[in-house]
Amino acid sequence: MSLAVTKKTLGELVAARIRDYILDHGMKTGDRLPTEQQFAEMFGVSRVVVREATKSLGYLGIIRAAPRRGLTVGLIDNDRMAEIVSFNWMLASMEPAIALRTWAIMTAGALSISTQTIQVSDLAELTTLAGKADVDGVLSQAETEFTRKLLLVYGCVGAAFFGTTVIQYLRMFAEKNKKKFTSKSGPVYKQVVELLKDKQNAEAEALLLSHINSISV
Known about the structure:
Number of helices: 10
Helix content: 55-70%
Largest sheet: 2 strands, antiparallel
Strand order of the largest sheet: 1-2
Strand content: 5-15%
CATH class of the largest domain: Mainly Alpha
Order of helices and strands: HHHEEHHHHHEHHE
């Protein structure tokens, strides 16, 4: 059996070198980077190749280019990244059941293993988001935002990205295939917040899992 080898373009290699440069120099968002000409001389490539690399990094938000200020370190645009990941899942024809299971695992994992205590301000925001999610319904933007906030509150940054990306993917799947997802559980999010407020995490987890597991197309 042969293994396919993906050959990177020169622009992709330079983009990787620029990312390494940012990390190796401990740079933060807003810090100024070398110019494209300086990068070209540093890496021994043409400025055209560096421009290709900086444009690809700029699309993801890693680099920002502004007149008179030049190149600076940016911040990855999570919404754009989620669009790319969702599109990739569409190309791979990921089954909705797998996506729903992933969402359930992310949510249950956060509530099961986190030892963090929810702050009063976070509870207030979760309550507001819960109300919107209950009204707007399954796979709504409000449900996405509630899920993101819930996972972030429990310190699960990676799960927050992938968990909300899964919901966006399911919404994209429904739109492209002209299908409608429904849930048998009805409004649950205000109840979930009330349980979390009373530190009944296991009960909140069970209610969320019941909701996700009842979603069907």
